[in-house]
């Protein structure tokens, strides 16, 4: 790649309070994708994870499951998503990551998928059912060829040896799951594994971390930011999109609520 | 040809462990320890003891005289329907509950479609005094009310899966989500030869007792261990894996799996995964799947709730690809006819799933000197309402 990956640029220029937001492409309406991305950036979000809906999202809780079902009913597919993203880089500068399950990517064709990602300006991928070993053996070379950073997860149960392996295989950031759970669980600060966050911080990893799963308001966001470069919000944002006001209004109110104390 | 799973959990190109990181510690523990545990002396003793005295094994290998006369050949039925709880599913749940105890787990989760695996799991949990939670598609909870009541009476909690189409695939999703949310004290008893490595091999090992017995029993009946062919129905593929296992290396034994065609393989209402599917990843394994062009999983259909799964165990995808086994299909109508035929010729009411295997008898040319073993995976009690409605008794 001629320019440096936007994910690395972000983490070099901003060391804390990074806000990353997930949404499911095709939800609430099929063609909301570009508007949601542009409005999130306008409201100061640093990084966006665009969810590619799958019929069987085993790592997701009810909110993202539901948004996926609706998105698929609306007619969303990877092909459609790339069409929607064709000219996104004319208006959006922040890093964009695609998140989804392996099977639709395999059917699209892994190399073709990577090629398309590069074409439209995708910086990274999160594929929860692509485990480290398979990534290293079958996908890493291809992802790197197309300048895509693969983001791997760690949980409170991940051993130190494995965290170090994951750090070694990562080149953007590490997705630190707040507690072993599906997405959207819990929103109490007491549920956070402070001991785990501190333990990971002491490992002096080469990659920065974002904390995700269960971040839903200013309090949980601020708390997560104490232990990492920032945090990722998914279910709470997807839920906020249900309100009966304009999409832009929904997004700006939500981001405000997260960033500013009440 | 090699039909054993390799170190990484693959049969040829199929299998593996495509798990989210949240499942890694549990799966890694199983991968590293299952072989050592299930081959240990104590485990074997307990397993064999329970299969004999609790399940009632060996299950008979019965020469079906009138059925044989009708088809002008020699047909033997492996009577898994006579096992405690009424099907082969108990072989696996006995093995896995002993394994869970060795791993010091306190809480058991399972998925179920028709409720046979749910009942078999609830049964062994009662036997061992373990907490049991069974996920079952909300639609199946309604369709299979008697089995739901049985599980509850056995002390299990039955949680309806309300996501997706509310059947077996969704129950499996929910069970996996439960495991992700309870990473420390829980063992997931998967009901077939599906899921991430080591489940396909582990469940095959527990079901392999079926073909081990067939060999010995056939020797008693006819003086040789190997039949002309073995026929079994295939949902996820566990009863077939068990019935095939000890014949895999003897290529003179023809192996036939029978998938559920539902209303026909040319319709959308079918579950014939190998006939119609494409390679993909679901429930943490690479196998053949019924899916759309975009890689979304298609909801299958069959009259038998135990066969309407959109995937198939990786062992079968491999046997299919290497042509070591042949896979036929049978429609709802053919299956009902074959169930009635067995009932009236032999006085045995089969499960709808098992009747798929019987329906294959009409699809192959049986010779007078041949010996065919049909794995009768379960009994028909649970399907009486379907039978009565269809036949109008
Ligand atoms: C009697 C019986 N046979 C067969 C099956 C299908 O499972 P498998 O293909 O794993 O043997 C079931 C599943 O519920 C069953 O109850």
UniProtKB/TrEMBL annotation, chain A:
Q: What keywords appear on the UniProt entry?
A: Amino-acid biosynthesis, Aromatic amino acid biosynthesis, Lyase, Tryptophan biosynthesis
Q: Which GO terms describe its molecular function?
A: tryptophan synthase activity
Pathway entry: Amino-acid biosynthesis; L-tryptophan biosynthesis; L-tryptophan from chorismate: step 5/5
Give the CC-aspect GO terms. Answer: cytosol
Instruction: Offer one Pfam family short name for this entry.
Output: Trp_syntA
Q: Which InterPro entries match?
A: Aldolase_TIM (IPR013785), RibuloseP-bd_barrel (IPR011060), Trp_synthase_alpha_AS (IPR018204), Trp_synthase_suA (IPR002028)
**Catalytic residues (UniProt):** 49 (proton acceptor), 60 (proton acceptor)
Tell me what reaction this enzyme catalyses. (1S,2R)-1-C-(indol-3-yl)glycerol 3-phosphate + L-serine = D-glyceraldehyde 3-phosphate + L-tryptophan + H2O
Look up the EC number in the record and give it: 4.2.1.20
| Assembly and oligomerization | Tetramer of two alpha and two beta chains.
**Function (record text):** The alpha subunit is responsible for the aldol cleavage of indoleglycerol phosphate to indole and glyceraldehyde 3-phosphate.
- Family of the protein in this entry: Belongs to the TrpA family.
Q: What is this protein's name?
A: Tryptophan synthase alpha chain
UniProt lists the gene as trpA
From TrEMBL, chain B:
Q: What is the catalytic activity of this protein? A: (1S,2R)-1-C-(indol-3-yl)glycerol 3-phosphate + L-serine = D-glyceraldehyde 3-phosphate + L-tryptophan + H2O
Residue ranges occupied by any Tryptophan synthase beta chain-like PALP domain in the UniProt entry:
56-378
Amino-acid biosynthesis among the record's keywords? yes
Biological pathway? Amino-acid biosynthesis; L-tryptophan biosynthesis; L-tryptophan from chorismate: step 5/5
Q: Which residues carry this modification: N6-(pyridoxal phosphate)lysine?
A: 89
What is the role of this chain?
A: The beta subunit is responsible for the synthesis of L-tryptophan from indole and L-serine.
Oligomeric state and partners? Answer: Tetramer of two alpha and two beta chains.
Q: Which family does it belong to?
A: Belongs to the TrpB family.
The protein's name in its UniProt record: Tryptophan synthase beta chain
